[in-house]
Amino acid sequence: MDTFKVLLLEFWRAPQTRTILVLILLDLVAGVMAAIRAGLFRWKELARFYRTNVLPYVLGYGVAWSLVRIGWIAYIPEVWLQQVVQTLLVLPMVASLLASIAENLKSLGVKREAG
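Now predict its structure.
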């Protein structure tokens, strides 16, 4: 059980995990603001957001992170290489969350400055 606690703590402290969580929070806030502005806010949509964004991103990345971390302890002890692979695993999630945040901000009338 101690090994599980150590892995869970490492996962929580990983910068990739925190990046995902911050982006999910920003996406949530921007989405709620956009829905309120459009008069479309529904509490059940928060549950859908949790089910479709929070759980898949955090749990999916957690499983992938754990497999890399546990599998590579025995085969590739270089921590920097583990970090690179874990970062590559998180990039599609970051791109998806950034796109969702941008879409929500666009709904709020926030325009991106060119240049």
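Residues 43 and 108 are 19 Å apart (CA to CA).
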